[in-house]
Write a structure and sequence with these properties.
Layout lengths: L4 H12 L5 E6 L4 E4 L1 H8 L3 H4 L4 H11 L9 H6 L12 E9 L2 E13 L5 E10 L1 H15 L9 H11 L3 E7 L2 H8 L1 H17 L5 E4 L2 E6 L5 H17 L2 E3 L2 E3 L3 E6 L5 H15 L3 E3 L6 H20 L3 E10 L5 E11 L5 E2 L5 H6 L3 H16 L5 E6 L1 H5 L1 H13 L6 E6 H4 L3 H12 L4 E7 L6 H7 L3 E4 L1 H4 L6 H16 L3 E4 L5 H10 L3 E2 L12
Parallel strand pairs: 11-12, 14-16, 16-17, 17-18, 18-19, 19-20, 20-21
Antiparallel strand pairs: 1-2, 1-5, 3-4, 4-5, 6-8, 6-11, 7-8, 9-10, 13-14, 13-21, 14-15
Helix pairs in contact: 8-9, 14-16
Length: 541
């Protein structure tokens, strides 16, 4: 049954007076025919008797007059409710969100509107309902902020850049990596590092860029213009130059920070290829790297992934094996020591040397598994033998509590603690002095010995050797292999041998490849010889 205008208003009044949702009816000029208590009290700040015959703008202006100091005090009615009432013959129902300021607060409403017709089907006004969904919208905004924005810098994060790339189709992406950011954290502390990240974020914003923070020390920007990659590179080089002029402050200290940048201008996998470009820039220690489809950079990473998979499979299939290289007593000619050298056997039963897989193993967290396997195999190989044997350890092994625990457990159970020698790479481990010293104390208490590997390179520090109380100094092969032709190298070796003798350490010469070199190290007084002249690495029977 069609209702007349008064009938419709009375009907709405009967069913909606005390509902929590806002309900109203208006004529085509936007004047209220009816408004229930909810809209009167929550939105219009008026009595129901005042509302009929008035427009939204009346109540908005009245509220503003009460608060002249705040022009935005009440904008709901004027901006949202009154603006869209236009005489349209075929007006259809609508559902949408509206918002504005009420009492100085941002309010969101879910509004439903529909045409109001008389008994003849003529459009005579509108009816509507509104529900306050402010709490719901603010919760959704908060969840979006947590999901898509970095909490430290308030910049959009990696998830947001992925979303924007998928939805907005940018033409290029540039990733910036802070050079040596770990050093800043280690030297000044994490809190100072966080402040630097915030300052860098502000610097990007000050240049009217729209940065993302996509990783701990990485920022990114997107290009939407169709400009050449050469122009992008020019822009980025200019940006890096500006950045390097910036001074950042940590308390009273002033520090300079530099970026590396990776650029990708491709149609697919934009962020992935920008990642590849920045990784390449870091590896090659260059300022700006451009991803090029024909540069085979992506192929290199695929090969690395394939090698990582091969390492994992080899660990599962017991194809990580140990070869042992003899170490000869120079004076007696006896072989009573061996160095454990790891090898990987591929599915075709071919031996893969360590240079081809250990570096990748370290990058993929597989290195500790290899170390544990080497410790297990070597200790079980020598538990029934009389010779001593050495195993190489990296600083990553020493810093890994589970690896250290496994080492100690294994050497005790196999009764090899008194014959094992742990070789620590001098250029890698000594700079982490406290951790290395703590490890040495633990294993020496069990009877193990310590060798410093590759001693004599540019990192050598005699003071550290004294503090760590090492048992063996392995002289770097780069000095030994040219000792017969390079007088400087011979002098360095003589100094190391003299130093070792005075500190009750033994010396081992690596890379002894022929009789000439062997004769020279014997003449100098090196204690032990290791190299192809003495014996090649192989399985032990």
């Amino acid at each position: 049954m069609d209702l007349t205008l008064p009938q419709a208003a009375n009907f709405l009044k009967l069913i909606s007076k005390h509902l929590p949702d806002m309900l109203w009816a208006k004529d085509l000029e936007g004047r209220y025919l009816y408004a229930n208590d909810a809209i009167c009290n929550k939105l219009l700040m008026a009595n129901p008797e005042e509302v009929v015959g008035q427009k939204d703008v009346f109540f908005a202006q009245r509220e503003r007059e009460k608060h002249p100091q705040n022009k935005q005090w009440h904008t709901f009615g004027e901006l949202c409710f009154n603006s869209d009432y236009v005489v349209i013959e075929q007006m259809k129902p609508m559902i949408f969100e509206e918002y504005g300021n009420i009492k100085g607060k941002l309010v969101y409403l879910e509004v439903h509107k529909a045409p109001l017709h008389d008994e003849n089907g003529k459009l005579i006004g509108t009816i509507g309902s509104g529900r306050d969904i402010t709490a719901q919208v603010l919760l959704e905004k908060k969840n979006e902020e947590l999901a898509y924005y970095d909490q430290l810098t308030n910049l959009p994060n990696r998830q947001k850049i992925i979303l924007d790339i998928n939805e907005k189709a940018p033409t290029a992406c540039v990733i910036f990596n802070i050079d040596e950011f770990k050093v800043i954290n280690d030297f000044f502390g994490v809190e100072s590092g966080d402040k630097i990240l915030q300052d860098i974020s502000k610097w990007f914003l000050s240049l009217d860029l729209k940065p993302y923070r996509i990783d701990g020390d990485e920022f990114a920007i997107l290009y939407y213009e169709n400009i050449s990659v050469e122009n992008i590179k020019h822009n980025i080089e200019h940006l890096l130059a500006l950045f390097e002029e910036e001074l950042f402050h940590i308390e009273d200290e002033t520090i300079h920070i530099q970026f590396s940048a990776g650029i990708a201008k491709v149609k697919d996998k934009l962020l992935t290829k920008a990642d590849i470009a920045i990784n390449y820039a870091r590896e090659q220690k260059i300022k700006v790297s451009i991803y090029e489809e024909n540069a085979n950079i992506e192929q290199k990473y695929k090969q690395n992934l394939a090698i990582a998979t091969s390492i994992r499979e080899a660990l599962l299939d017991d194809r990580i094996i140990c070869h042992y290289q003899p170490i000869m007593d120079v004076q007696t000619g006896e072989i009573n020591k061996y160095e454990t050298l790891v090898r990987m056997v591929d599915k075709d039963n071919q031996i893969i040397p360590p240079l081809d897989f250990l570096k990748i193993a370290k990058k993929t967290k597989l290195y500790s598994h290899i170390t544990k396997e080497v410790i297990h195999q070597s200790c079980n190989t020598f538990k029934n033998r009389k010779e001593s044997f050495s195993v190489n350890l990296s600083i990553d092994d020493i810093q890994d509590a589970t690896t250290v625990q496994e080492i100690i457990h294994t050497i005790i159970n196999t009764n090899t603690a008194s014959r094992i020698v742990f070789e620590i790479l001098e250029s890698e481990g000594i700079e982490n002095y406290d951790e290395v010293a703590n490890f040495i104390t633990q294993v020496k208490a069990l009877g193990a010995k310590i060798a410093i590997d590759d001693f004599g390179t540019g990192y050598s520090n005699f003071e550290h050797i004294l503090k760590l109380n090492v048992d063996f100094i392995k002289i770097d092969g780069s000095l030994i292999k040219s000792i017969h032709t390079n007088k400087r190298h011979r002098i360095i070796v003589e100094i190391i041998v003299d130093f070792a003798r005075k500190t009750n350490s033994k010396t081992i010469a690596e890379y002894v490849i022929d009789e000439t070199i062997f004769s020279i190290i014997k003449e100098i007084g090196v204690d032990f010889s290791q190299g192809f002249y003495t014996g090649k690495p192989d399985l032990l029977k």
